[in-house]
């Protein structure tokens, strides 16, 4: 009798261990899924300058942005070549959508350096995400900044983190080549495109001074972004801006672009006239 | 010390003996025992329904049964309906038996009292009057959706009342029956449920509202647990037991959000709340740590009938469906088991609280399926924390030790030997 009880006891124990183990597997997956679906209340907007520009590159843009809307706090981060972070400015407590500029001590141009900068960006990102508890964000990259962000999204985006909206301003996805022949960098970006978050929305802006380029970046290079993003993400919109301030380095302060930034990236409640103006610029929303 | 213990045991036995001299008490126990078979069948059907065929079922969550089992939906509907119907039959049978036994003891017409009583219970079902009649047929949607059987006390009160009423107006029985029927129907249409049932549940709801903010304080939390389980002993599922392990939804969500945001469980905003403490660590085998009683019985009881009851009830109890063991042992209305029934959850809560307060284990934050075996709840709700598993085991062991002497007492004075057998 007692032996029988013992056997039953063992059987129950075995059963418990078995479902305990598969329960553990299930719970791990379930927590992962919940973490993926969880969206932090805070989602900052990262601003990444292009080559030869410092963390102060967007100061006048931020002034422009803060003139018309609620003041966003601004944090500037510089990633040193030894992976150390240097901070200036600060985040106001309770600011759920602050602006964070990430610049690099080594801000040289070139394919190899852009990849290095993407790695540096990921160091800054991880540190900031840990400190400020966010798991999703939006971003704007000017020139090479857009490339850095794209490399980051493809190769360094931490698990359960995602980007909602990305705006690239005159980002040369095919470097400064006035050709449709794909450079090694573009091929690299295309090779990893499946790692891009499927739900992100992209606005790629090209400036034109003449029929070919914005003075530095040729239109065909900006246009090459389609090889990376088309049919990869939720939406990919190309916008061409012409007229005053349409040269490469003035683009971030171009009023049209500022308006587009406000409506689509910052998702501000902008005035009707600006909205209409934006919608004229955009071929398809 | 042993002297004191002996005194206590003797007092308890004397009390039980006194109670058992009352006719009404014998009737309650006999009737409860008699519905055990249907309660077991109902519990097994409910077990299948609640582990596999509801979205929050344990096996459905773990193995995604709905994805690979053909005809999942129709089969699920079948089990759900069957579970509802059978578990309502438990209450229907109970009121029949109480009324019939009461009438029999007064040499009145037992069958009539039984039939009328269960008819009234059936009539008092709200849905018959509130749901529209479709295609000339009554749509029977019964109200049973939890792990606990409701309406035990209501069924007993109704049974006694009907037998008394029919005895009182023995010379005008047809008139009395007509009157009762009409009153029951009118009440059902008006109040949506049989009075003692709705009254008890209204009180419980009011109490839950009153105590909504109590549970962050461990002493008030213990008081809530105590009251809830005391109520269950007399057949009224208290607010905690009605929630089916989903107490404190708001705190749980805030804890969960914090955990998801920060990727760890330290410093969650509400480490002490009913869900994290009571539902997770003091609900092993349902209210009253019934799995511990079951182990104590299998281990030390010498009564064949009690042993069989425990063995049969094992599987549902393992998944926290404890109605068979509550009814079959019986635990309900049994003064010999009432003390451990209310004490063990308190001890379990205290142990869990101690471990959480001393930061020896994280708070139970991640949601677990409704029918997760009680012993695994802490482990899974902390995302696989071994200390949490240890605490669950410790609680079960402590509860078993607390139950042991009472099981021996229960053996010594077997209520059921006086009340008849079900085999």
Automatic annotation (TrEMBL), chain A:
InterPro entries: AB_hydrolase_fold (IPR029058), DUF915_hydro-like (IPR010315)
Single GO term (MF): hydrolase activity
Gene3D superfamilies noted in UniProt: alpha/beta hydrolase (3.40.50.1820)
Keywords carried by this UniProt record: Hydrolase, Membrane, Transmembrane, Transmembrane helix
Transmembrane intervals: 6-24
Cross-referenced Pfam families: DUF915
UniProt superkingdom: Bacteria
Name of the protein this chain belongs to: Alpha/beta hydrolase
Organism listed in the record: Loigolactobacillus jiayinensis
UniProtKB/TrEMBL annotation, chain B:
InterPro entries: PTS_EIIC, PTS_EIIC_3, PTS_IIC_cello, PTS_Sugar-EIIC/EIIB
Pfam families in the record: PTS_EIIC
UniProt keyword annotations, A-Z: Cell membrane, Membrane, Sugar transport, Transmembrane, Transmembrane helix, Transport
Main location class: membrane
Keyword Membrane among record annotations: yes
Membrane association type: Multi-pass membrane protein
Alphabetized PANTHER family for the sequence: PTHR33989, PTS SYSTEM N,N'-DIACETYLCHITOBIOSE-SPECIFIC EIIC COMPONENT
Name of the protein in question: Permease IIC component
Native source organism of the sequence: Loigolactobacillus jiayinensis
């Amino acid at each position: 009798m007692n032996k029988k009880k013992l056997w039953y006891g063992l059987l129950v124990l075995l059963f418990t261990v078995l479902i305990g183990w598969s329960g553990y597997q299930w719970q791990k997956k379930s927590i992962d899924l919940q973490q993926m679906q969880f969206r932090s209340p805070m989602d900052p907007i990262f601003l990444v300058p292009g080559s030869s520009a410092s963390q102060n590159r967007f100061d006048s843009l931020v002034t422009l942005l803060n003139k018309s809307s609620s003041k966003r706090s601004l944090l500037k981060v510089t990633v040193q070549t030894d992976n150390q972070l240097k901070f200036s400015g600060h985040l106001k407590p309770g600011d759920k959508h602050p602006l964070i500029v990430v610049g690099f001590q080594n801000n040289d141009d070139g394919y190899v350096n852009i990849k290095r900068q993407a790695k540096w960006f990921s160091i800054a990102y991880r540190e900031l995400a840990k400190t400020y508890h966010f798991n999703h964000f939006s971003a704007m990259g000017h020139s090479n900044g857009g490339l850095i962000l794209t490399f980051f999204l493809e190769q360094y985006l931490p698990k359960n983190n995602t980007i909602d909206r990305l705006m690239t301003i005159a980002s040369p996805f095919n470097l400064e080549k006035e050709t449709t022949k794909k450079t090694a960098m573009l091929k690299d970006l295309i090779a990893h495109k499946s790692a891009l978050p499927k739900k992100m929305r992209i606005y790629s802006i090209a400036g034109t001074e003449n029929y070919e380029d914005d003075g530095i970046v040729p239109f065909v290079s900006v246009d090459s972004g389609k090889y990376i993003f088309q049919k990869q993400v939720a939406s990919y919109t190309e916008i061409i801006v012409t007229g005053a301030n349409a040269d490469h380095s003035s683009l971030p302060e171009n009023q049209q672009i500022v308006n587009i930034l406000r409506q689509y990236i910052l998702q501000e409640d902008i005035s009707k006239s600006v909205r209409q103006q934006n919608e004229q610029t955009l071929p398809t929303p | 010390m042993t002297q004191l213990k002996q005194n206590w045991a003797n007092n308890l036995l004397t009390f039980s003996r006194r109670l058992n001299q009352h006719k009404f008490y014998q009737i309650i126990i006999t009737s409860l025992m008699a519905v055990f078979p249907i309660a077991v069948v109902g519990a097994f059907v409910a077990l299948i329904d609640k582990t596999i065929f509801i979205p929050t079922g344990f096996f459905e969550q773990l193995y995604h049964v709905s994805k690979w089992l053909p005809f999942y939906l129709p089969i699920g509907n079948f089990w759900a309906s069957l579970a509802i119907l059978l578990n309502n039959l438990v209450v229907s049978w109970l009121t029949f038996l109480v009324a019939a036994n009461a009438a029999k003891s007064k040499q009145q017409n037992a069958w009539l009292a039984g039939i009328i009583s269960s008819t009234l219970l059936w009539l008092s079902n709200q849905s018959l009057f509130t749901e529209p009649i479709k295609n000339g047929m009554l749509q029977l949607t019964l109200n049973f959706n939890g792990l606990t059987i409701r309406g035990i006390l209501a069924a007993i009160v109704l049974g006694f009342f009907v037998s008394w009423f029919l005895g009182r107006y023995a010379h005008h029985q047809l008139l009395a029956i007509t009157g009762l029927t009409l009153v029951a129907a009118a009440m059902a249409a008006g109040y949506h449920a049989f009075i003692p049932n709705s009254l008890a549940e209204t009180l419980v709801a009011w109490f839950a509202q009153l105590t909504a903010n109590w549970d962050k304080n461990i002493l008030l939390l213990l008081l809530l647990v105590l009251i809830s389980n005391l109520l269950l002993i007399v057949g009224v599922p208290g607010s905690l037991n009605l929630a089916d392990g989903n107490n404190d939804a708001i705190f749980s969500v805030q804890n969960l959000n914090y955990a998801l945001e920060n990727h760890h469980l330290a410093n969650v905003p509400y480490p002490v709340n009913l869900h994290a403490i009571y539902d997770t660590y003091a609900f092993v085998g349902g209210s009253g740590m019934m799995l511990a009683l079951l182990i104590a019985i299998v281990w030390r009881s010498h009564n064949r009938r009690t042993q069989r009851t425990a063995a049969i009830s094992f599987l549902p109890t393992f998944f926290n469906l404890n109605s068979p063991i509550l009814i079959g042992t019986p635990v309900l209305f049994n003064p010999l088991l009432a003390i451990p029934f209310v004490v063990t959850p308190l001890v379990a809560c205290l142990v869990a609280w101690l471990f959480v307060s001393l930061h020896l284990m994280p708070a139970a934050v991640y949601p677990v399926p409704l029918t997760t075996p009680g012993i695994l709840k802490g482990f899974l709700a902390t995302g696989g924390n071994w200390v949490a598993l240890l605490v669950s085991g410790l609680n079960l062991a402590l509860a078993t030790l607390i139950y042991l002497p009472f099981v021996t007492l229960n053996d010594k004075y077997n209520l059921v030997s006086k009340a008849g057998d079900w085999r």
